[in-house]
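User: tokens in, sequence out, please.
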């Protein structure tokens, strides 16, 4: 796995997988490769199960009601994935850091990646910059990487839908 920066790519992969959970080991492998991960071993149904469990834990971080709860949850994830950072050139594509033990199955690797990547995103961008869409009927998760840090919607479509709804409410329709 060679994702740099760890934070942005990892948190976006977690959001993508959480928003549309993979249904097979093959789909999980394809989506991880598309996100830039180098897979060192075959992906198994056990990896899929472990990834779903990691996403369950990660969604608790997303849904935390305050910064302290969010920090406590992400710290718990990082403690469970604890490994010392190490330099690696495993894929021959340049030296980079891994925050996990070598030769882990994909499910465990993603747990480590999601926890460390999310922590780096939150401390680098702001503890509030991971959330669900503000549109009530939309549960999509997104990492706010906007310049201002005030993004409220998962997409332009949801932002437009909410603007139309607010306009119609003011106009009395």
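Assistant: Sequence out:
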């Amino acid at each position: 796995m060679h994702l740099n920066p760890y934070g942005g790519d990892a948190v976006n992969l977690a959001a993508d997988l959480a928003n549309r959970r993979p249904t097979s080991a093959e789909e999980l492998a394809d989506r991880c490769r598309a996100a830039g991960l180098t897979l060192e071993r075959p992906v198994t149904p056990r990896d899929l199960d472990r990834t779903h469990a990691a996403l369950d834990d990660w969604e608790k971080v997303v849904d935390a009601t305050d910064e302290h709860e969010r920090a406590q949850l992400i710290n718990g994830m990082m403690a469970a994935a604890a490994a010392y950072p190490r330099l690696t050139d495993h894929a021959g594509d340049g030296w980079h850091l891994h925050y996990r033990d070598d030769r882990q199955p994909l499910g465990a690797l993603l747990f480590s990646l999601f926890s460390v990547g999310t922590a780096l995103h939150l401390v680098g961008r702001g503890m509030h910059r991971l959330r669900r869409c503000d549109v009530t009927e939309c549960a999509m998760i997104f990492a706010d990487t906007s310049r201002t840090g005030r993004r409220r919607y998962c997409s332009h479509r949801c932002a437009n839908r909410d603007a139309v709804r607010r306009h119609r409410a003011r106009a009395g329709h």
